Amino acid sequence: MNKLLSSIKLFYHKLGSFPWFYNISSKFLPVSSALAFMILCIGIVWGIFYSPSDATQGEVYRIIYMHVPAASVAQSIYFALAIAGFVYVVWKMKMAGLFIKAMAPIGASFTLLALISGAIWGQPTWGTWWVWDARLTSTLVLLLFYLAIIGLYSSFDNKKSADQAVSILAMVGAINLPIIKKSVDWWNTLHQPSSIKVFEESTISPEMLYPLLICILAFYLLVFVFGLMAMRAEIAKREMHKDWFRKIIIKND
Amino acid sequence: MIFLKSFFSREVLIYSKKTSNVISPVIFFLICISFFPLAISNDPNELSKLAPGLIWICILLAGMLSIQTIFKEDYDDGSLDLFYVRGFSMLQVVLVKIFVNWIFTALPLILLSCSMVFLLYFPIDKLFNLIGSLFLGTLIISFFGALAGALSLGKNSILASAIMLPLSLPVLILGSSASTYSNENITFFILLLSALLFFSVPIISLACIGAIRLHYE
After folding, report:
1. Side-chain half-sphere of A144: how many Cα atoms within 13 Å?
2. Looking at the partner chain, which of B159, B167, B177 has a beta carbon nearest the beta carbon of A176?
3. ipTM (interface predicted TM)
4. Closest chain A residue to the Cα of B196, Cα to Cα
5. Looking at the complex, does the CB of residue A176 fall below 8 Å from at least one CB of chain B?
6. Identity of the residue in B159, B207, B217 whose CB atom sits nearest the CB atom of A160
7. Residue-range domain boundaries for chain B
8. pTM for this model (two decimals)
9. How does DSSP assign A78-95, residue by residue?
10. Is the pLDDT of residue B182 over 70?
């Protein structure tokens, strides 16, 4: 037990080091991007060509293989940002601040993707591009929070205070998001309830569920790859003039 | 305790000397309110239906303008540096500043919104609901605004609005529902608003202190 704890501690300390992360991520990157691409292809092809069409919605429903993964990823990234913010505020781990900086634009783009794909889906099924329904509104607010984080970060010249400010905002936003969600719920909702449930039986048929789960997995892997790339770029930006970084550049040349 | 008292009287003195800080939100609020009948309709029925939402939006915007600069003057002239360096309790500084700002900028607006019974044909039987929800809601909004102001010290003010407005969304929803629904449901929304207030006071004031501190690191 103690051994496990100390190895976790060691991993945590290693995670805080930029050179270690840069080296290890360069090994992970090709494998995980190939994996993400493969799984995404499997999920999309299965979903679009081999899964049955929906009884009420026909073929239109297939945008679910884009919409649900994007929405789920968008929320998870915000949750991750809040955890990173907590880690930064409490332990002043530089990597956590960098993580927020790198992930916020990715999260914002997936939120936007979820909103746009939802609008495209809503047009034929609900007959409107946009409704002020609980889930749509809270996703829009999520996008606003991402934009606020990006805007706040870019207003600082000093990276350290930018990280600190963004961490505080990410934490407060994460506390506030459930409240917003609950308060937005007062309007009765047009959106169909979630089809995937963890503890109960899903209301979606398994032939549609499996490609959907694969697509969700693929999107998480995709976020992992994008995140690694963005973090490496940010490390390169911050550590441009450090010795270890120059050595890597020279070695690669 | 002595510090609390003297700091409180200092803040009150500042606001009573700089009357423009107190008057401009009031003017802004009146102008904002008077634009809605011009832009939408002057039909009393329609206006009285829209009134709670309009009052809340205008209060939110007016409050946003006044609360964001709450730390700005002290930051610019260096008194905030002194409070920080001399080891005064930042919690007291933050709480007193927010509370005094609320007294001088939000209270006049709350009193003024009684006149919306005439201007926007707000239904008079729901006036108590409106005033009650405004009392709680403006306090919560003040805390969120102070956090936004503290995070964006020395930056442009549009950034502070972009931070504050999404945060104050639940207040807007709960507050305007509290002033729209009939009297049976009012306690539910008032209780939720007070829960939000008691929940956000400790968390947001701590976040405020952290946000002020990051400008001195």
Report:
1. 21
2. B167
3. 0.85
4. A179
5. yes
6. B217
7. 2-216
8. 0.87
9. HHHHHHHHHHHHHH--HH
10. no
